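HOLO CASE FILE
Compound: zinc ion
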Amino acid sequence: MSGSFQVRVEGVQFAAAHCATIGETCEPMHGHSYEVAAEVDGALAENSWVVDFVELKSILRKLCHELDHRFMLQTESRILKIESREGEWEVRTPAGAVYVLPASDVVALPIDNTTAERLAQWLSGRVWQAVGKKAVNNIKAVTVEVWEGPGQRAAHRRERLPVD
Ligand SMILES: [Zn+2]
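Model generated. Tokens follow.
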């Protein structure tokens, strides 16, 4: 039998703060109620499963929990001057604003900007790692969608590299 199957979980939520940058400008700090979905494409493994819904949802919930009620800091920003000190992060914007945040309130993300696109990409990497640990190699792709608000969504799809 050919074709592939998709398994999708959705409606996992978290609330977090960020300052995305655009050009040389940094947005004022603000927050969103985010919603996340993950879709796994693959062939059926033993017992006619692609991936266990419960497991996929639990992976997504754990990841959203890491971000929930935190300030999401783009540590690879090309614009912000970021310094990690004992117990705190200092963030300077090009306009001269300085944020000093307790480390416990910050989730440091190795991305250049906290856009919904980059968050989706970061999450798809983590979901891929997590399902990859459990699953056999029936999984072909992982897509993560991030809603920054109602009707405003970015997605990232990560595919298995062809093996030769
Ligand atoms: Zn925002």
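CASE NOTES: Residues 18, 20, 30, 32 surround zinc ion (CB under 6 Å). The first helix runs from residue 53 to 67.
CLOSED: yes
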